[in-house]
Batch of 2 targets.
Target 1
Amino acid sequence: MTKDRLITRRKALLIGAAALGTAATAGTERLLTVDDPTRSVRSTAVIQGPQARASLRASAFRLQPLTDGPARHLPARTAVRHEPIRSMPGRGRTMVLTFDDGPDPTYTPGILRTLRAYGVRAVFFVCGEMAVQHKDLLREMADDGHSVGNHTWTHPLLTTLPRSRIRAELERTSEVIEDGCGEAPLWFRAPYGAWNRTVFRLVAELGMEPIAWTRDTRDWTAPGTRTIVHRVEEGAAPGVIVLSHDAGGDRSQSVRALRAYLPYLLDRGYQIALPARQFT
Ligand SMILES: [Zn+2]
């Protein structure tokens, strides 16, 4: 059901998404613009480590909790950005691999196996409605040291939704991630790359950073394993964030492609790393 819905939405929104979300030309300096520099400094001080996080008061802006467990502790609010992060420059020959829309029991385990074989960590931007059904995979991601990011609950085009719906999409998903991984997500990626001011503000409220991508493999069009491999290898450069998918349709090409381009990147001297939180 979920996969079919994702596919249908993806087809329906393809044209709109291309117009909305692919302007990947913003300069890094714009990415680091903040509304209030003093707040970002404070964020730097409190975001470090579980002890600091545990001292934060429970959020007053949550929806009703999913369970009656102990009070949750959100990461500190982050500064509101005006653009998502689209690359991770300045860290040497480092690249970031990201996998969206899962977890999916058919494809995610294969991705995890390959990453594990090479001792590499990646970011999985999960959808809440998938994650809530596959918490075992969330746990596996966390146990392997991967970062689990928030990709909304139902993968909607957020720019068409009222603020209350956007908030619910983000909050519910953060809660499921925290339940499954033991830690609330630090990163958010908008479906279809569709951002607006409301999304940026809510992402900051929930303690996440908005992140997009540098290199889109367009693997969801199933262009063939070799094409996906070529797109990653051709686009390889320091700071590049690669977008792939481990759910939302037949992702067997994405699984196979990773087995080819990952050793290639490592042989070329790239380090595959998790994104670093950047505060100005
Ligand atoms: Zn997606």
Target 2
Amino acid sequence: MNKKDDFYFMGLALELAKQAAALGEVPVGAVVVREGEVVGRGYNRRETGKNALAHAELAAIDEACRTLGGWRLWQCDLYVTLEPCPMCTGAIINSRMVRVVYGASDPKAGCCGSVIDLTALPFNHKPQLVSGVRAEECAALLSDFFKTLRSARRQTETPTEPTPSTPLSNMPPTTSKN
Ligand SMILES: [Zn+2]
């Protein structure tokens, strides 16, 4: 599969990430592709699903297993907009995924090269890694989302002017004791 195909399929993952953002979810999207055909789709639904497992990659892998009728995705590639976390990298290894193609790196939780590269450890399966595909678009989607979230929080948390009756002496000190 060449670079142009990777660009195209990452575009589908980006569209799914935008669906997550529309729900107020951190925008991460993923697709599983087998021989040029999408067999699984997913996007982050942790908030709406109230579930720590509701990551884009797990949803896409889950759908791919159902579509293909088996747990071995040994002819499949996974495209995801953000570098997979430890849980999802584990699922990628367990599902025998051929390749993982990701966009933006995740220095806080990424386990395909950032915090650690789990695929480099001597597990029973070693997926190939491709990083940085449409990374700027993937990262921009995330940074725009967090920017909007922060400004929304600022609006809802607009501090009210302290009135003379406000017992300022009861407020926590603003300076650190260290
Ligand atoms: Zn994950």
